[in-house]
Structure formats: C-alpha cells, structure tokens
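User: Please run a holo structure prediction.
Assistant: Happy to. Please share the sequence and the ligand.
User: Here you go; the ligand is iron/sulfur cluster.
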Amino acid sequence: MYWYHWTTILALSICISVLFWHFIRLISLGKPKDYSRKSGSITKGVVYSSTKAMVDHKESAYLHIPTYFAGMVYHIGTFVSLFLYVFFLLNILLQISLPPWLVWILVAGLLVSSICGFSLFIKRLLLKPMRNLSNLDDYLSNFLVSLFQLFTLLNLLYSNNIEAIYYIIASLMLLYMTVGKLKHMVYFFAARYHLGFFYGWRNVWPPHKSK
Amino acid sequence: MKKLTKEQIDKALKVLKMPADSKLITHLNACVHCGLCATSCMYFIALQNDKYTPARKVELVASLYRRYCTLTGKIVPKLVNARELDEQMAEEMIDILFGACTMCGRCVKHCSIGVDIAYIVRVGRQMLAAMDLVPATLQATVDAALTTGNNMAIPTEEFVDTIQWMEEELLDEMNDKNARIPLDEKDKHILYTLNPREPKFFPLSISAMAKVFYAAKESWTLSSKMYDVTNYGLFSGNNEHAAVIAQHLYDEVKRLNANTLVLGECGHGSRATRWEGPNYLGMEYDFDVITVVELINDYIRSGRIKLDKSLIKERVTMHDPCHLSRNGGLESELRFALNNSVSDFVEMTPHGFDNFCCGGGGGQLAMSEYNDRRIKIGEIKAEQIRKTGASIVVTPCHNCIDQLMQINHTYKLNVKIKSIAEIVADALVIEK
Ligand code: SF4
Ligand code: SF4
C-alpha cells in the first residue's frame, strides 16, 4: 500500500464519521410530536413519499426533462463511482480483475454521467437565475463530484498511471462531503421521511378516492 | 428600519438553535440549489423574477442557520453563503417571506429533494415575529382576534343582530318555527364556527348552512363571542398568539359542552384548528374536530339530507383551498360534496393536490402593502377558471372567496363565487 492509499482511507474514515454524526443527530432529535388526531398512516405516507411521489406528475421532472435527466444520470454515476471506489480499495488486497465487457460498460456510463455533471456545472455558471441561487459550495461540490466520476473512469482504464491522482481527488471529495452541500446524501432521505410523515398523518399521501 | 438590538437577534436565532425535532435541520440542510422549484411557484410564474424562486426563500433562512449554527458557516461564511442577521437581511425576509409567499406548499411536492419550503417560510416568519417585525397590517388582524375574539373586531351586538336577521329570513323561507340559528346554547352536538367575513360581508352563507342543519335535524349552536375559525397566528409566525387564539375555540367547546367542533368554511382556519391547534396548545383534544365539508358529506352518505343535483344546471368548477386539499387531505371529500350537488362539474387544470393557490393565502389578504402582487399572481387562477368555461366557482373558504371576487372583477371573469354550504343549500330538497 502506498501513501495515497493511507490518505484516502483516512479521508474515508473522516467522511463516514461526520456523515454518521449527522445521521445520529437526526435520530436523536427524533420525529415530530404531533398532538392532532391522526387521520392517515405515517408508514404509507413515507412509502409513497420515497417511491411514487418522486415521479408522480412531478413538475421538477416533466417541465425540466433535460436537467432532470442529467441530474438522475449524474447521481447514478456518483453511486457507481462510490461503489467502484470501495471496490478499488478492497482490490488492493483481493486483486480481482473485472471482465473487459463490464469495464467498457462502466466507462461508457461514467463518461455520460460525468458529462452530465459538467453540463450542470456549466448551466449553473451561465444562467443568471442559477448564478443568483448558487454559492461557492454549489460549484465546488458539482465540480469535485464530476471530476471524481471522470477519474473513476480513467482509473478503470489506466490505473497504473493515474492511481495516485485518482485517490487524491477521491479523498478531496470525501473530505469536502463533510462541510458542503454533499451532505444532502443524508438529508435527502430525512426530507423524504418528514414529507411522508406530514402528508401521511393528514391522509394526503398516498392519494385516495372518496367512498 | 431601526437597528436590530442584540436581544431581537438572540430571540430570532433561538428559533434556529433550539429545534424541537429533526424536521427543521433536515429541511435547512436539504436544498441542493437545483432551481427546479421556480416553475411551481405562482410568484415566479406571474412576476418572472428569480428572487421569487422557492429555493431563494429557503435560502434566506438556511443562510442564517449556516452562519450561526454550523462550523463551516462560522469559519468560512463566504463558501456556503452564510449571512449575518442584520437590518438588510430582516428587510429582505419581510419582503420575501411575508410579501411573496402564501405558504400554499405547492412547490413542496415538486421540489426535487422534498424540502418543505412552506414550513421553512413559516420558520422565517417565526424569526421575524420573535423580533417584532410582523407587518403591522397582519399583526392588526392577529391583535383583533386576541382582544375581541374575532379577526374583524365585530362587536358582539352587531354579530347577534346579523344572526337574528338571518334567523328571521330562515324562518320565513322554511315556514317552520324549528328553523333556527341557535346562539350560545349548551349541550348541543355541534359547535359551529365561522369566518368573520361571513357575518361582516356574506351573511347568506350562514343562513345557507343553517338550512343544511335544519334539513339534517342537527343539534347545533353558534357562539356569540368565540365563533371565529381563523387563526392568523399561523401566518404571523407567532406561536404564542396562535395558541391564545386556538385556546378561544377550545374553551368555547368546553363552556358550551359540545361534542364536536365543526370548522366553518375557511382553509387556513381549518388547518390551524384541526392540525396545528393541538400542537400550539401542546395537548390532544378530547372532542371531535371536523370540517364542514366532512359533516355535509356525512349527511349525504347517511341520507340525513337529500340533494337534487338537477336543480343546478350551470357549469360549476371548484377551487381547492390549499390548506384543505394539499395540506389537509380533503381533496376527494370536496369532490364528493360537489358531485352530489351539481350536474355539470368540471375540474380546473391543475386541481387538487397540484392546484394553484388563489393568491390570497398566507395572510396576503390582510397585508394591503402587497395588494398589487396579490392581484397579479391571481391572474393564474383567473386563467384556470376561464379555461373551464364554468359560470360558478365553488370554494369552501371565505378568504379564497374574497380573493376570487377580486380577481373576478379585475380579470372580468363574470362568474359567481359560492361556498360549499351555499351550493349544497341550493340543491337541497327539504322534506317536511
Ligand atoms: S409555498 Fe406557495 S407561494 Fe410559497 S414558495 Fe411555495 S409555491 Fe410559492
Ligand atoms: S427544487 Fe428543492 S432542492 Fe431544488 S432548489 Fe428548489 S427547494 Fe432546493
């Protein structure tokens, strides 16, 4: 193992610890105490909130198809890259080689997702309403994650040459995840829960017909 | 604006620093600034200015949270746009959180993450209320309710006169001495509540509901003092005031020993009483609280009232009050009532959960300084109505009715606006 392996393991540990701290803080603050008489089901509300509500007639999706599509692909690319990052680390010990067809599928997918990531970055930079909404954190987060995807792709192809740079970029991203908006990785799920709680309690979600 | 004192700032920040549960920090940390919510908000659509993007409203509160409650915001505020709470910020918050949001919640479902934007706007208003910065016009409405028991400060004698006048009309129409509007009677099944706009401007909606009660042979009463279903504390952001107003109705149910509190036709009032009231008071209610729409539907389902929908031949559409449909779970109940009352019912596009606010919610009707914006955003509702081709618009909310009447006039829609009680009363078949 080289220094950059140790560096990235340290960054990963810090990242996991901080995100875990955010998670624990959410759990310890607990769910809302509602004294009103419940009329629906929180469980059903949360299930709907985490599934159909994310696609069911959602304006942020169908009024903005290119952006929404790019965002989805970009997020899938991020999860695949994180998964591959763990795989690369384990592979230092396991020494498994991926079949070439799988490598090419991953490369093609990550190429598309990182292009999506950089496109969203450019969109944020070029459109005035987006610039007005954005802060430095938004640009950095977007850029680091897109770069991480691009270097995951390159590491799949040329790991002998770029491994050190790959792990440095991954480490930077993991460390940055603890301070910037990338934390939404944890808060996204909490937000879906709270929406499900709110609408489920009042029998708004899941949608229903009157008898 | 006068310089903010340290005490004011501390009080405002306490709202952020002492969350009751995980909801506040969740929604303050979740927005990713994708901007996709803009096109779901009528302020952005109608005024075409990105400062009205829902995320920008969240950002006002979230930037303060980052500045005062996160390490990154304290160390490198520029990185995460962590802002100071100063006079400029407070002015922006007043203009945007009070003056450019009806707290309708339409943007919430459409947010790509699920940020409860309306809830965060309410938190921002809470902070402003803690600093005594609620717009004077809105605060006057709250004060009227606190001091007189109703938000229009209608004197009791005037209210009683109106009710007696309506009772005489009802007696004449029904030609039956049992057709009454009981006042302050104890041990009745129902305590019915009103939006003060009814006795003040639309007393016929009271007699319409009295007619429904008469047909259903209901045991009911009104209170002569604490009949106001509204609670502008929901909009001012002052939870103490909201609690005092909620307590008015709670105490009145107890004083009159009623079994069920029936919430009159008011969207936010129904929400503030049914869903928020117990939380303002920190206790569960030991009596039933239902809306008038649910009550009417109960009468229809159980056969206690009979309706002849062929009596109303005109085309009818419905405006969903945000706090009854989207935030109250009554979307299908509203349709049940209307489908049983009229023969030609047509939906607006969009409707139900996705309906646009009329533009008068969130206390906008009380804040005259934002009238121009309110009428402008109402154009979206006006176009929705026009496209249905309906000649009657029904909505179970007297605040919505007020706004709809104004846009009816401004945008020359030439429609009639009615409450649910009025349309049901029109379709009522009285069996003697
Ligand atoms: S709650 Fe309604 S008015 Fe407020 S930002 Fe959302 S859509 Fe706009
Ligand atoms: S859609 Fe949601 S996550 Fe995106 S900017 Fe709007 S509030 Fe933030």
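Residues 144 and 285 of chain B are 25 Å apart (CA to CA).
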